[in-house]
Amino acid sequence: MSCFPENGKMPNHYDVVVVGAGIFGSCTAYHCQRLGLRTLLLEQFNLGHTNGSSHGKSRITRYAHTDPEYVPLVGDSYAQIAELEMKRDEKLWNKLGLLWAATGDQVHTISGHLKKHHIEHEVITGSQISERYPQFKFDEKWTGLIDPMGGVIYANKWLNAFQEEFKNLGGTIRENEPFISHTEDNTSPLAIKTENDSFTTNKLIFTVGCWITKFFPNVNFKIKPISLAVCYWKAKEERKSHLLDENNFPVLIAKDHDKKEFYFALPDTDYPGAIKLVLDDGDELTKDLNHPIRNNQNFIELPGNFISNHIPVVDGSKPYKVDQCKYTTSPDHHYLIGPVSSKNPNTLVGGCGSGSGFKTAPGIGKALAEIAAGKPTTVDVSFFSPSRFGESV
Q1: CA-CA 20 to 30 A from 350: which of 266, 315, 331, 370?
Q2: Where are the alpha helices (DSSP H) in the chain?
Q3: Could you give the dihedral angle defined by the CA atoms of residues 52, 150, 317 and 106, in that order, rounded to the nearest 10 degrees?
Q4: Average pLDDT over the chain, rounded to whole?
Q5: In sequence order, what are the residues at sequence separation of 6 or more whose Cβ sits closer than 8 angstroms to the Cβ of residue 11?
Q6: Is residue 324's pLDDT more than 50?
Q7: What is the tens place of the pLDDT at every residue in 239-293?
Q8: What crossing angle do the helices spanning 155-168 and 357-372 adopt, rounded to 10°?
Q9: β-strands 58-61, 151-154: how paired?
Q10: Calpha distance 338→367 (Å, rounded)
């Protein structure tokens, strides 16, 4: 079946079409246009919607990571954001420092990666954590790593900045334009059909979050998106609320390997007086890729218990507010960056970034654009190639 209009008129042609205007897609479209590629960015909902993974005011940025392949991507993103801040005269993040607290030897592994890249950091004992940050309480089963370049990303401002700069370069955004289909062979140009129009393109890049399961149901990287219960918590006493603001509260990653519970926390950027603290686990989405009506109470009670044990200034008995976020990871919890398969080199994917992807999105977007333009990538992203899961079936 042809994707072209019945009247035979040739559809609009673009060098690149990017599907999905979340942070991955917006950064990718910006870099494609910056490389001189005529680019169209498609979004099935309105820009800045809350149906995916890119909404909200805050995310964590950090050099510290369990895998060394992420560090150069973060460095590239820091450089890009510094350039954007200067160009736009706008503050896009706040350097607060990251505290990574973990049981076992994970902190020392991360420290080894940072040393290889000559990244400044500090390793402290569990008891020293509360000396540095009086909000927290950890014993000697825990070790802390302080990454001074960690901080809060102003997520909604990042998203808006890349979209605006993309348009300033001459890029086109079509919102409320659901993607329907495309030719799935090695022909060029590719034919694309949306709900309202048709296009052709030399390169097609999917940055669609959880909807990757819809567009690529037969690939080998089996993905099960989940719904996170994004919980916000207030101080027990109003007079101690200042300990939860950006001047006093670092971004936090806490991994209790004994209990197999992983958490992340940020200061009161989203809701004044309430930190964001979330368990890195959630409920399956519905068949239509929607959130459940309500999240399992366990994903709210466990963070509350963690708070009671380790952040005594915060009231862990009941969250102030609970939002939802769609969370998509690959089977090995690493990104997908590059051609979907060697059979379809003109179809690329950038996805599975939940949990750490916002901070690397500028670097990922640049890499995808460079691949689309046939250029070597500034940062080596071969570690994240979809080919590691084998060819599509």
Answers
A1: 266
A2: 23-34, 70-88, 106-116, 126-132, 155-168, 212-215, 298-310, 357-372
A3: 100
A4: 94
A5: 4, 5, 191, 192, 197, 198, 199, 200
A6: yes
A7: 999 999 999 999 999 999 999 999 999 999 999 999 999 999 999 999 999 999 9
A8: 20
A9: antiparallel
A10: 8
Residue length, the chain? Answer: 393
8 pLDDT above the threshold of 90? no
Both structure tokens of 234: 């207030």
Name the residue ranges covered by the structural domains of the chain. 13-54+156-218+333-389, 98-148+224-329
Q: Are 373 and 35 in contact (CB under 8 A)?
A: yes
Q: Which two tokens stand for residue 322?
A: 């609970």
| Residue 145 reports pLDDT greater than 70 | yes
* CATH architecture for the domain at 98-148+224-329: 2-Layer Sandwich (3.30)
User: Which element (helix H / strand E) includes 338?
Assistant: strand 336-339
Give the pLDDT score at 7. Answer: 43
Give the single-character DSSP code of 239.
G
Cα separation of the two ends of the chain: 22
CA distances from 147 to 97, 317, 344, 383 (A): 6, 30, 40, 24
Cα–Cα distances in angstroms (integers) from residue 250 to residues 51, 69, 256, 337, in the given order = 28, 24, 18, 30
Return d(Cα 357, Cα 281) in angstroms, integer. 16
Query: What is the three-class DSSP state of 219?
Result: coil
Q: What is the DSSP letter of 384?
A: G
- In angstroms, the CA 361 to CA 187 distance is 29
In the chain, the amino acid numbered 359 is K
CB 22 within 8 A of CB 348: no
- Whether the per-residue pLDDT at 50 is higher than 50: the answer is yes
> What is the biggest distance separating any 2 CA atoms in the chain, rounded to whole angstroms?
73
Q: In one letter, which amino acid is 257?
A: H
What's the one-letter identity of residue 366? K
